Amino acid sequence: MSVYDEGVFQRGFGTFPLRGDELAGAVRSAIQIGYRAFDTAQWYGNEAELGAVLSEVKVPRDAFLVTTKVHPENMVAERFMPSVEQSLRDLRLDAIDVLLLHWPPGNDPIEPSLELLQKAHQLGHARHVGVSNYTTAMMRRAKAIMDVPLAANQVEFHPLLNQEKLLSASRETGIPLASYCSLARGEIFNYPVLKEIGTRHGKSAAQVALRWILQKGVTMNTMSTRPGNMAANFDVMDFTLDAKDMQAIDALTQANYRISNADVVSYAPTWD
User: Fold this and answer.
1) Whole-number Cα distances in Å, 251 to 162, 164, 194, 245
2) Which of 122, 161, 168, 209 would suit a FRET pair with 217, their CA atoms being 20 to 30 Å apart?
3) 191 vs 250: CA distance, rounded Å
4) First CA to last CA distance, the chain
5) pTM listed for this prediction
6) What does each C-alpha distance from 26 to 31, 53, 206 come to in angstroms?
7) Mind telling me the catalytic residues?
8) Which CATH number fits the domain 3-255, given the four candidates 1.20.1250.20, 1.20.210.10, 3.20.20.100, 3.40.50.2000?
9) Tens digits of residue pLDDT in 98-130
């Protein structure tokens, strides 16, 4: 069981690439809608802004689940802990709820960064720890060397990308998957079957895609600055896709539409 499985934490609000007033307005709207899980990263440059908004709203701080991620450039001994301590100050937290390694450390071995992550947990800087953008082999290696459970492997996950190998590794290792790019940055709207399924359920194509992710056992992150879209992305718990629906959406994964590749992020590994 993942820390994200608790109620509203299955539906997180991502903050990339929001900054300034746009971020503040979006987060306030998200909180009003019901979001309580928020995802940021050192790389995003908005931890302090997110921390300021969460500290000013009239919601108990312990009602939120805040995830942030260590930048790959900080995954060395002299920079790792200082960067985490800066994230704590920026987010105005005594402990980060979920601390992830944002990307594998390039061509370097993963063990040193995982050991630093575990040390951050031992020091009380993070309540839960995890990884992001790990391959199946990396998941197995992380499972073998970590003394604490990994809360998540946050990866690109949407109906247009076949991630069955990662799902299998998740079941094998007990490391849950969490999604980013959950709507493939709008590409899903080019596939009419999602709208057709949605019509039968009284839901939109986006809601169908998000429900598919949840029914795959993957928690999700979405981002929008439009309150209507935020609310729709959150409102996906009152219907269930049947086996036929799931099979029809599974077929879309053959598109193998991947956003996070080495052309976009130099740290991207060779994907499964």
Assistant:
1) 9, 12, 11, 10
2) 122
3) 12
4) 24
5) 0.97
6) 9, 10, 19
7) 44
8) 3.20.20.100
9) 999 999 987 889 999 999 999 999 999 999 999
